[in-house]
Specification:
Chain A: It holds the Pfam family DUF1501. The complex is a heterodimer. By secondary structure, chain A is α/β, with parallel strands linked by helices. Helix content of chain A is about 35%, strand content about 15%. Chain A has three domains: about 60 residues; about 350 residues, Alkaline Phosphatase, subunit A, CATH 3.40.720.10; about 60 residues. Chain A has 13 helices and 17 strands. In chain A, strand 16 and strand 17 form a beta hairpin. Chain A is globular, with a radius of gyration of 24 Å. The longest helix of chain B is centred in the middle third of the chain and has 20 residues. Chain B is an all-alpha fold. Helix content of chain B is about 40%, strand content about 5%. Chain B has five domains: about 160 residues, no CATH class; about 140 residues, no CATH class; about 220 residues, no CATH class; about 80 residues, no CATH class; about 100 residues, no CATH class. Chain B is built from 33 helices and six strands. Classes of the chains: A alpha/beta, B mainly alpha.
Amino acid sequence: MEKEVLEHGLNQNRRKFLSKLSLGLGSMALGSLLVPDLFTGKSSAEEDIMAALPHFAPKAKRVIYLFQNGAPSQLESFDYKPLLNKRMGEDLPESIRMGQRLTGMTAGQSSFPLVGSYYGFNQYGEARAWISDLFPHTAKIVDDICIVKSMHTEAINHDPALTFFQTGAQVGNRPSMGSWLSYGLGSENNNLPAFCVLLSRGKGNGQGVYSKLWSNGFLDAVHQGVQFSSSEDPVLYLGDPEGMKRMDRRRMLDKIAAMNQMSYEEYGDPEIQAKIQQYEMAFRMQTAVPEVTDVSKEPDSIIKLYGPDCLVPGTYAANCLLARKLSENGVRFVQLYHQGWDQHGNLPNEMAGQAQDVDQASAALITDLKQRGLLDETLVIWGGEFGRTNYCQGKMSADNYGRDHHPRAFSVWMAGGGVKSGMVYGETDEFGYNIVKDPVHVHDFQATILHLMGIDHERLTFKHLGRRYRLTDVHGAVVKDILV
Amino acid sequence: MFNFFRKFIRSFNPEILPYMFPILRNVLIGMAGSLFLFSCGKSEEGRIALSASDQVSYNFHVRPILSDKCFACHGPDANKREAGLRLDTEEGAYAALKDAPSQHVIVPGDPEQSVAYQKIISEDPSEQMPPPESNLKLEENEIAVIKKWISQGAKYESHWAFVPPQKSPVPETQPWGRNEIDYFTYTKMQEKKLSPNDEANSYALIKRLSLDISGLPPTMEMMEKYQNLDDEKYETLVDDLLNKDAFGEKLAVLWMDISRYADSYGYQDDEYRTQWPYRDWVIHAFNKNMPYDDFITWQLAGDMLPNATKEQILATAFNRNHKYTEEGGVIHEEYRVEYVLDKTNTFSKGILGVTMECAQCHDHKYDPFSQENYYELYAFFNNTPEKGFEGDVSRSKPAKTPILWIDQKDFQKEGILDYLNHQDTSKIMVSVMDELDTLRKTFILDRGVYDAPSKEVKPGTPSSIMKFDDQYSKDRLGLAKWTTNKNNPLTARVFVNLIWQEIFGQGIVKSAGDFGMQGDLPTHPELLDWLAVDFMENGWDIKRLMKQIFISSTYRQSSEVNNKALRKDPENLYLSRAPRLRLTAESVQDLVLASSGLLNTEIGGPSIKPYQPDGLWEAATSGRGTLAKYVQDHGDDLYRRGLYHFIKLTVPPPKAIIFDASNRDRCEVTRGRTNTPLQALVMLNDPFVLEASRVLATKIEKENMTPEEGIQWVFQKVLCREMTGEEEGLMLEYYQEEKTRFDSHSDQVKVSLEVGEMEMDESGISAESAAMMQVIVALYNLEETITKI
């Protein structure tokens, strides 16, 4: 690990050296993708920030974030509360609610009847972690994951809550976590973007996602998440037009480069050299991306592991497999979103469908990374933007109910990349409403992720309009207890 | 006030400066040459070469040094202050020492008696300031500046941007330049030992002017008519271009970024809205050259003007373009507050050029804005009858209360709203501003949170910028008057700087949205002020301002980059060459359309949906609302300018984003300018570029041009100049290669050509066309094509 830190430092120095050199020689320009601020005059303070990275030996090199968009209920997944079944239908005591604000959807309800999980729970693994019957595959990998039951957030609606998780602020156009990591650590693979985004959707009540979530904000646009799609072109505009072969493209690019070179000779602008490099990178991406997105060479054992859906492009399972491939190829941050977890009503039915979409493939990803020896250096995260209420929204019957948004307590899990395995962290009260032990705020969670990547969250900053910004704003503390 | 910037001494080698004093680099960029003279070059070392008349400025010379080396322990932060001593205020600096009342930190006029000076020149580690353990050190030249400043009376100044601009005398006639702008830039170049580039050739100037003014490449006729430009022809060309309707469309892009214009509401379901009449008003206002003070007044308070017309009310949509939630279950007041915050932040950043939003949660750390100031400003926008939530997406309307209705009768009235591109007889709704009859009380919100009101405040503006005149009503109309008062130190400077940025790629103040203490200092402060004052003196005339810049020799330089200039001034801060800038997202689109003859020049109207990769909207939608699926437009609409591309906030147009356009989520005043492989992929594979190439290729075939003629003709259309022999050789060679390919793979001919919805003549399907099309695609992919040269 020390060697890696050293190498990284050397790369940083090399980068700085080359950037100076290229200024001096004029002709020796690196692609702007590699050194985006080369000719825009990065301040020395920023150079210092970059040169100091990583701040300490990273535990994880890459992140795969399995975002469960819409907010899965913790009460039907990882936070077992038998009391809610016992006191089913009773009103939530004010002593527990303690003035928690409500969304407009349940603010008008005359009562807040407690509702217990429709699904049973069992204990698994060394930690005897409670996991509901909806997640049998996750139960099998319980010894590889760390379940955090004490997450809490400030937002109570989807858009601000998602934005908060991804950018550290509920509103505003700030860089996403993946962009921060791309900015701080760069790419491990020059033929693939450092930050990739994969979308899928379940049948459950959905909330949209938006490109703001993978925006570079005020960082250079090269740090923007690149959305992969399940259509013919996995990356926008990647495919050559019909009738064009690779060698035809090569010939065209050679002519373009020759013409650009003439232009460079006339104007001497290093940006022209950078442009030539970008076209070469585009050409390499055209080969590298289809290679990495092609699952046809995956053996049957892998297909079986992720489940048959992994052969259907655009499904969560296919995205999990793709995430492994991208990560394996050095993509720094792979962000998945699986939509459909917003169960205001019809929860037992919808949640079963959602769980079925994600359970096997999420567990498969962990198993797969582990068998390739990659889990130690890859941080995997599973979770939504907030939790759900312990009381019912709308009509309640024995087998049907809904739950509203709940920001005060919810569960996520993390695995690999320096996180303790086989651990359950944090506790809620017996109503599953308030945290009673080891609360983890969203900013703590973000600080921890950065820490695992070798970054001090207080030192990775970017000065924009007079202020130094960071992912964790002015908050956040690393959750040391869950680190290996 | 800036006459101290006059040139002083020339024997200075600035290129090594940034390496000698890296920390000072930013500071130096903003400073006049006076500082440099003692910094480098052995012969000057240690000598105080400021002549007796040279004034040291606190703002430009002293504060950056003190701020960097002293304020951490002796500055505004009371919690960190050492020895109870502060240097950031006159009061603190002139005070007697606590433990030695006969001594003073700074004695104006007498450095030797000033304890601060004695400390900074002390060699005794226990006395020395900054203390050795701080790892900070004052350079010789910095000490000299401080000494000179104390000798001259140690005068403190308000922040430069908060002092009203004044015209400083234009430097004497110089050997170079055409107008005042050049006098200022040339003086600065002289100070930096840079010399201006030669004038660019005619084709480069015609392309540059055409792109800068109309956002479109020059037509063949224009290139023909204006070849061999002389001063007279040049001015005619500028005037011609400024009088085109395309001018308003080009400048409107900037204002759409500032006013965060979009065609949807944003947030979860992101339903359709109709703010486009506002966009059309902006185009119209720029085209008829509405004075900037009126332009701002109407947008801030058009509804409050006496006998307000519908047009004036329409302009107030500026304050309603922000996002609106339709997410079921939101707390109404939380979002109503959010909307007022957005209005406040947009006004302060886009029009005043200050980042007030820091003071939303706490007193500003760097600028003299308290949280109270923030909510006083907020109070102006807090009195509208709008709601935080008007129902979820199932009940969505394309505008939200208060609404302006525009109908047939309005279009028919001469001169008012007749420029709106209405497509049918239906009424149009636009979200606009209105006032409540009874004033809504405004409170400071603790940490900026809607449900934590504390002290009540009244509408007001930060007095550090300019006092709010008692005669002004305490409402948006009063605010508009305050903003456009000629003594307001920011409004004109900020706009002039935006225009400069629009033309040169970066502003005289690089941080165009932050003129505060932490913002960049102006590279040419006297020029900025001269332009700002001149702008106001001449009726806030936008076209006149722009023409001044276009006429200047500074603008007309060639963009050639020589090694010496690149080393000395890699960012081209001192403008010894014209910038070579990649076009904006919209201009890339427009260039391809115009050069291929596909451009539909229709102005305004509802935004259109061009070709877009499949599945983008569908992958990210909640499934609700009318914008869940992307329904592409057809026919002429496909060939509208980039300005009219539909902006769905949650999934903004992908190509535009790849080319650094604003996502319109918030007010933005500056776009990035990156160079990425994704841009290469767009230019290589976007059906829109391919279609344009095909259309040109088949035209060449149809007109029976030889390959040579065809390539020459198309090169001129796309690159806006004649090609060199070498270039022609390369492209002809490529044509032959491709011809051979298509001759031997005839199956590839049709599939290559069949791209885009523009009809194709069957007769145009030939190996020749297919080969020529590839040549044209290559031309569109040249760096020069989408660059202002």
